[in-house]
Every structure is written in C-alpha cells, then in structure tokens.
TrEMBL record:
It is found in: Cytoplasm. One of its GO terms (biological process) is response to wounding. It comes from Xenopus laevis. GO terms for cellular component: cytoplasm. InterPro entries: SIKE. The keyword Cytoplasm applies. Pfam families: SIKE. This is FGFR1 oncogene partner 2 homolog. Belongs to the SIKE family.
Length: 248
C-alpha cells in the first residue's frame, strides 16, 4: 500500500484503531512493520463504488427530468404565443372572413370525406380482385402439385380437402344468393298474381254491369213500345228517359 492511503496513522509501539469513513485497521509493531486488513479495504472500496454509481444514476435521472420539464415549458410557451397570435389575428379580422374560412374548411372536409369513400370503394374492389387472383393461384398450385406429386397420396388428400372446403364455401355463398333471388322472384310472382286476379275480378264486374245496363235498356225500350199505342199523348217524354238512362 502507498503512504497516501495510510494518512492519519501514527507510528506507535502499541496498536491504535482509526475510526472514520473508509476505516482501515492497521497496526504498527515495534520493528516498524505494518499489517492491514485487505478485505476491509476492498469492502470499503466496493461500497464507495456502489454509492458513486447510485449517485450517478440519481444525477442522470434528475438531468432527464429537468430536460423533460424544460421541453414542456418551451412547448407551453410556444403554445401560448401561438394562441396569442391567433387571438390577435381573430380580433383584426371581421366575422365575415372567419365565416368564409369556416365554410372553406367544411368544403375541404366534405371533399376529403368523399375521397375517403372513393378510396374505400377502390380498396374493396382491390380486395375482391386480390381474392380472385388468390383463388386462381391456389387452383394453379393445386394442379401443379397434383401433376408433380402423383405418387404421394397424403399430399393429394390434403390438397383435395383444402380445395373441397373452398368449393363448399363458394357453393354456400351461391346457394344463399340463389335463395335470396328465389324469394324475390316468388314475391314478384305473388304480386303479379294478385294484380292479375284483381284485373280479372274488375273485368268480370264490368262485364256484369254492362249486361245489367243492357237488360235495363231493353226493358225500358219494351215498355216504351208497349205504352206507345195506348197513350199517344205521353209519347214525347219517354225518349227523354231513354236519353237520361243512356247518359247514366
């Protein structure tokens, strides 16, 4: 050990104990030789190193906190400045310009919404096209594997199962669509049948009414013929009744 690490020690004939931070238990003998506990020195050194590391970590955390606080303060200052600028601009501008600006912003928002709708539709189209391409690709791969792996029954069975599942899904979709179309056709046919029945009923009623009207006309004409020779004086008003019946 060096002389600097053993400062504060006095040379004595009897052993003396030094107490303090980083205490070293050293003993001077009569011949001037010194024996120190190296383990204690190493333990104290380790403690000091750990404390220094803790202090360094605390200092780094404090530095990080101060930097984040400074950034927040700067952001708040910038926000306040921008708000003040906007308030000053709004004070100088009339309300009409503000309303026009809001209307323009609303138009832009509507245009963006329309563009979003169009993009959503195009995305759906691309997805459907991609699904179609993937189905075609799977079919081609299935054919290639069937051609190349004719001797392997396990792979063929797996591919057949996969292909059958896809076909079943497509068949289910097609069956659902056909059921919906059949239902719509049945409803249309029911409506057409109801309208046809109604037209037939109206035609029958019209025919019956015409027959009744014809019978009444004939009966009135027969009465007029029977009354003509008996009452010649009353022959004039009968045609008027016939005309009124015809009008009716």
């Amino acid at each position: 050990m060096s002389d600097t690490s053993l400062t504060g020690l006095r040379r004595q004939t009897e052993p003396e104990e030094l107490v303090g931070p980083g205490t070293l238990f050293c003993f001077w003998r009569e011949g001037g030789s010194m024996s120190c506990t190296i383990e204690k020195v190493l333990a104290d050194a380790k403690e000091l190193v750990e404390r220094l590391r803790e202090h360094d970590g605390a200092a780094e955390s404090l530095i990080e906190q101060t930097t984040t606080l400074n950034k927040r303060v700067e952001a708040m200052k910038q926000y306040q400045e921008e708000v003040q600028e906007l308030n000053e601009i709004a004070r100088h501008r009339p309300r009409s310009t503000l309303v026009l600006g809001i209307q323009q912003e609303n138009r832009q928002i509507r245009q963006l919404q329309q563009e979003n709708k169009e993009l959503h539709g195009s995305l759906k189209e691309h997805q459907s096209a991609l699904e179609l391409i993937m189905t075609k690709y799977r079919e081609q791969m299935f054919r290639l594997l069937m051609a190349s792996k004719k001797d392997d029954p396990g792979i063929i069975m797996k591919l057949k199962e996969q292909h059958s599942k896809e076909l079943e899904a497509h068949i289910e979709k097609i069956s659902e669509m056909t059921a919906v179309m059949r239902r719509a056709i049945e409803m249309d046919e029911q409506q057409d049948n109801q309208e046809h029945d109604r037209i037939i009923k109206l035609e029958q009623e019209n025919k019956r009414l015409r027959e009744i009207l014809q019978i009444t006309k004939l009966s009135f004409l027969n009465l007029h013929k029977d009354d003509a020779p008996e009452n010649p004086s009353h022959s004039a008003p009968v045609p008027n009744t016939d005309l009124s019946l015809r009008k009716s």
